[in-house]
Amino acid sequence: MELRGLRDDVYRRPLATALDRLGIGPGWTCVDVGAGGGDVSVALAEMVGRDGRIYAVDSDPAARDEVARAAAAHTQVIALTQAGEDLSLPEQVDLAFCRFLLLHVIEPEAVVRMMAAAVRPGGWVVAQEPVTSAGRIAGTALSMPDARHPDVGALLPALLRDAGLEVVDAWAEAPAGVGPGPVARYLESLTGVDPGDDPVVLPPLVTVLGRKP
Ligand SMILES: C[S@@+](CC[C@H](N)C(=O)[O-])C[C@H]1O[C@@H](n2cnc3c(N)ncnc32)[C@H](O)[C@@H]1O
After folding, report:
1. Which residues make Cβ contacts (< 8 Å) with residue 58, sequence separation at least 6?
2. pLDDT tens across 124-167, in order?
3. Ligand 1: does its nearest atom lie under 6 Å from the Cβ of 166?
4. Exposed, middle or buried: residue 31 (CB in 10 Å: 0-12, 13-18, 19+)?
5. Which residues lie below 8 Å from residue 38, measured CB to CB, with a gap of 6+?
6. Residue bearing the CA closest to ligand 1, atom 16
7. Is 72 exposed, middle or buried (0-12, 13-18, 19+ CB in 10 A)?
8. What is d(CA 54, CA 78) in angstroms, rounded to the nearest whole number?
9. Does any ligand 1 atom lie closer than 6 A to the CB of residue 195?
10. Separation of 38 CA from ligand 1 center, angstroms?
């Protein structure tokens, strides 16, 4: 399984926890910012049903084709090529969501502000971002030199609050394991290093649920 599919597999639980906590259901309109291959967009589409709508937004034009492939069975998914900093949708949505996005952008504050502007009053902004250095291989801290903000998850509650959102809930979850399995395979595809029999804690994902007043 490639990195994308593995990521979706090992971080499935934090996504499910967040969507369950939100009570998302049929007819919701959502934007998935930094949608990548569209795994989150498809999960959202399954929850909102045919009457809902999911805008899958990514700055990389190649993502549009990937989302189109992943969401072929879901006509309610609309893939758009846009930077999160320039987010502009044809309607205000019930939910603006991002996962593993803010660690890569130049100015996370600007993207969170645009997400807050994209939702209707009473709507939700939900972000799931890692604290990379809190991950461990055999007790040693992980690093991610290529990411602009590898520990942005640690700042996430404040980022949403400073965008004018009410922080309704916030927590962290980390997949962990030892020996062969999806956790070891994900780590290897991310770093090129097979952890062998060393215990692994993947970077915790901080989830913040923010509500627009
Ligand atoms: C690590 S992937 C995460 C994909 C998906 N959210 C997930 O959790 O599986 C990050 C994605 O963010 C996109 N991205 C990076 N900077 C962006 C920006 N400023 N605006 C929108 N998308 C961006 C990248 O093209 C990439 O597809």
Report:
1. 33, 34, 35, 36, 64, 67, 79, 80, 81, 82
2. 999 999 999 999 999 999 999 999 999 999 999 999 999 999 99
3. no
4. buried
5. 32, 56, 63, 66, 67, 69, 70, 71, 77, 79
6. 105
7. exposed
8. 6
9. no
10. 10
